[in-house]
Backbone:
């Protein structure tokens, strides 16, 4: 379906309960993790229980960061990234299984997702001020990137780096994996109603007391503090990918932060894609994949994935144009209601 949407002015924050169905308090806390802010609000019988549950979730996300972050020299992923080519490196089963799942997703992405694009990140200096690589530098970075740069050995829970210079980044899947782990901890601590916002990726646990779901704004593709549409979700994660806000300079031109592994170049800021999925990891992976594919190719690709809702937004002649799949229709609203 494709329509033009009127843009409604609104904040990017979800709205909690109107009338609690049972006595509860809303507890909110935030922590800086994985290079961004994780904000959590839970409905709990009292503040003490709510704070304890949130702190346990923060501790679990910090644990995942210690395993996955390529910014930390002591993480499992960093050990892989500096390993001697050809020498197997054993990792924790949790990390091995996660990376195997991410690699499997990447193989099914038609080349649009690659967790081993570290050399391309360096070539474009996306973690710094940005630069435009020469043709030779780009070719070398592409050669060192890709799924073949690491080989899996399931029998020994180890991976082998193929060449010096290849490295993995968790930027396209780390937050999703961490949100899934945080949900498990919250539920284990008795939480049945919560909303987590991890640098823009959201996870709804249950519904706010007295309401049918968490109301979440889908931001305008180029103006983040305007809402182009609204979602009503429960027990789902919502991830949005866009390149309209995060730019680095290179060769006098701005470049987006999302790379297209198929050509090794930053993807132009064509608009945004929002994904709704049961699994936060899937939502994280799918939003990046679909942004790289773009609305036309992405819409066709999404039909191969069951259970995810997809919403593409872009501007044409001063209007917002939206295209979404059948799954998204169950959660999509044109206003805050």
Residues:
């Amino acid at each position: 379906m494709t329509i033009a949407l009127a843009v409604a002015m609104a904040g990017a924050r979800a709205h909690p309960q109107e009338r609690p169905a049972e006595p509860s308090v809303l507890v909110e806390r935030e922590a800086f993790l994985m290079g961004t802010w994780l904000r959590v609000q839970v409905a709990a019988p009292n503040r003490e229980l709510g704070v304890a549950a949130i702190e346990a979730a923060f501790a679990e996300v910090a644990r995942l960061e210690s395993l996955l972050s390529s910014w930390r020299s002591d993480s499992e992923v960093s050990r892989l990234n500096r390993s001697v080519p050809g020498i197997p490196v054993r990792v924790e089963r949790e990390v091995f299984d996660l990376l195997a799942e991410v690699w499997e997703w990447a193989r099914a992405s038609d080349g649009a997702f690659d967790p081993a694009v570290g050399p391309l990140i360096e070539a474009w200096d996306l973690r710094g001020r940005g630069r435009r690589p020469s043709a030779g530098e780009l070719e070398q970075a592409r050669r060192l990137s890709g799924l073949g740069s690491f080989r899996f050995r399931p029998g020994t829970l180890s991976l082998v780096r193929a060449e010096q210079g290849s490295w993995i980044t968790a930027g396209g899947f780390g937050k999703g994996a961490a949100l899934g782990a945080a949900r498990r901890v919250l539920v284990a601590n008795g939480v049945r109603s919560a909303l987590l916002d991890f640098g823009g990726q959201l996870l709804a646990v249950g519904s706010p007391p007295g309401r049918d779901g968490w109301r979440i704004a889908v931001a305008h593709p180029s103006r983040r503090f305007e809402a182009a549409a609204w979602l009503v979700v429960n027990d789902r994660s919502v991830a949005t990918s866009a390149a309209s806000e995060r730019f680095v300079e290179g060769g006098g031109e701005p470049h987006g932060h999302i790379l297209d592994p198929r050509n090794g170049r930053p993807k132009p800021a064509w608009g945004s894609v929002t994904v709704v999925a049961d699994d936060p990891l899937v939502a994280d992976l799918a939003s990046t994949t679909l942004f790289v594919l773009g609305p036309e190719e992405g819409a066709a690709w999404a039909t191969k994935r069951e259970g995810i809702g997809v919403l593409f937004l872009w501007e044409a002649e001063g209007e917002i144009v939206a295209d979404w799949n059948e799954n998204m229709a169950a959660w999509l609203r044109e206003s805050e209601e």
About this structure: The mean pLDDT is 89. The helical segments are 47-68, 76-81, 93-107, 118-124, 135-144, 174-188, 280-302, 326-329. The chain has eight helices and 20 strands.
